[in-house]
Amino acid sequence: MPQHASTQPLDVFEAGADHEQVVFAQDPASGLRAIVAIHSTALGPALGGTRFFPYASTGAALADVLDLSRGMSYKAALAGLDLGGGKAVIVGDPATLRSEALFRAYGRFVQSLGGRYWTACDVGTYSPDMDDIARDCDYVTGRTTAHGGAGDSSVLTAYGVFQGMRAAAQVAWGAPTLEGRTVGVAGVGKVGHHLVSRLVADGARVVVTDVSDAAVARVLAEHPGVSAVASTDELVTGDLDVYAPCAMGGALTDEVVAGLRARIVCGAANNQLAHPGVEKLLEEHGVLYAPDYCVNAGGLVQVADERDPSGFNLERAEQRATGIFDTTLGVFEVAAADGVTPAEAADRLAERRMRDVGRLRGLWVA
């Protein structure tokens, strides 16, 4: 999947040349500054979370939202959903800017797009925020269960990553389990926290790290057998069987791959490859990479289920997320058959569906 990793100022039309629409919005009264990027609606309306983050510049925010929205198109296509790819970012520190007024202003902005983009939670936003957005917007998923929503989408995101990790274990070691394996989880916030619980229940030895001491302390309190290290650098160079990047993107750099001792990389973070070509370095180093947008699609499956006319059904959503195991195995099988990396195989499968099914739909207009 193409990515833009440059830190240079971006030309909107050049950087987003493969996107259908990029829209900027601001509301000075509430402090809202937001960007929505719609990559593709070939398979249906674009669905993707809203990230609330203190970007260093508008260019950095734009680069991130373009990469993230592109990833959502591939994620939805590979998961077999009738959805396109979109993403939004709110620029600023959620610790100081979060307010009902800001989210309602943002909701009016999303409403103005007429259903071409549906929002949900992401880094820095939570289900109660979606409830505020929904007071002025019809195109919201990931709402609280009290309002008929799916609640925290990190639950099935972690479940899907666990299924993808089981599939990778099947290929690497011949059995779909992490029992007795050492798994390093970088980032134990919303998703990583749930993933640790899954791994512990499966009998894995788990080592964690996070920039938040509180997040690490919570995991250690809940799981006394889990250990922690001070940094991601210490984690990735440790004696791991599996490395699970579950924080921000760009985690897999040339330097990380060179020092990595794990046999498998499988985590929840989006856009893990720091630049094109890292996927080949992983293969050269004997590391089996489970493509991020393949294994972390469980959250998208969860919030997408809210759009069902019958309302959200967790059992149905979980059953669909269980399919990530077979999808991941399918990616590995195509990679082996075609002589390409798993990342390239996932792209081929996603692009084929967007091309074959998308031609039947064209541009989505609600």
From TrEMBL:
Record's keyword annotation contains Acetylation: no
InterPro entries: Aminoacid_DH-like_N_sf, Glu/Leu/Phe/Val/Trp_DH, Glu/Leu/Phe/Val/Trp_DH_C, Glu/Leu/Phe/Val/Trp_DH_dimer, Glu/Leu/Phe/Val_DH_AS, Glu/Phe/Leu/Val/Trp_DH_bac/arc, NAD(P)-bd_dom_sf
Organism listed in the record: Nocardioides flavescens
Keyword Oxidoreductase: yes
SUPFAM superfamilies attached to this UniProt entry: Aminoacid dehydrogenase-like, N-terminal domain, NAD(P)-binding Rossmann-fold domains
Protein name: Valine dehydrogenase
Family as reported in the entry's similarity comment: Belongs to the Glu/Leu/Phe/Val dehydrogenases family.
UniProt xrefs under SMART domains: ELFV_dehydrog (SM00839)
UniProt GO BP: amino acid metabolic process
Residues forming the catalytic site: K87 (proton donor/acceptor)
Sites where the protein binds NAD(+): G187, V188, G189, K190, V191, G192
Residues of the signal peptide: none
Single Gene Ontology MF annotation: nucleotide binding
CDD domains: NAD_bind_Leu_Phe_Val_DH
UniProt keywords, alphabetically: NAD, Nucleotide-binding, Oxidoreductase
Superkingdom of origin: Bacteria
PROSITE patterns (alphabetical): GLFV_DEHYDROGENASE
Positions of the Glutamate/phenylalanine/leucine/valine/L-tryptophan dehydrogenase C-terminal domain: 151-362
